[in-house]
Design a protein that fits this description.
Helices cover about 0% and strands about 50% of the residues. With about 120 residues, it is mainly β. Strands 2, 4, 5, 6, 9, 10 and 11 form a seven-stranded mixed beta sheet that branches.
């Protein structure tokens, strides 16, 4: 059973960069055909897909966030990370890292981490 755990600061100031890390256990982020996603949920709103990284390191981003988003990985630690630059209060949300299994179905989710953007 793959398990994911998000970590990072819970409070970020406007205009700064939000940085989160997802630590994966029970499976390798380099194993095909797994895909690893970042998804967020602002308060009172639905889930918003932000981007993904494939087992081979390729990345894709939401067009609406592409200019501010970067996903990287550290294979030695079995982690992948999210950076979101120039944050505003509208980026306040619960951020989740998610595993996509073969066939395109989401599998394991992290518990989510609350990030608040405020001065």
């Amino acid at each position: 059973q793959v398990q994911l755990q998000e970590s990072g600061p819970g409070l970020v100031k406007p205009s700064q960069t939000l940085s989160l890390t997802c630590t994966v256990s029970g499976g390798s982020i380099t194993t095909s055909p797994y895909v690893w996603h970042w998804i967020r949920q602002p308060p009172g709103k639905g889930l918003e897909w932000m981007g993904l990284t494939f087992h081979d390191g390729r990345t894709y981003y939401s067009p609406s966030l592409k200019s501010r988003t970067s996903i990287s990985r550290d294979t030695s630690k079995n982690q992948f990370s999210l950076q979101l630059s120039s944050v505003t209060p509208e980026d306040t949300a619960v951020y989740y890292c998610v595993q996509e299994r073969a066939g395109g179905a989401f599998g394991s989710w992290g518990q989510g981490t609350q990030v608040t953007v405020s001065s």
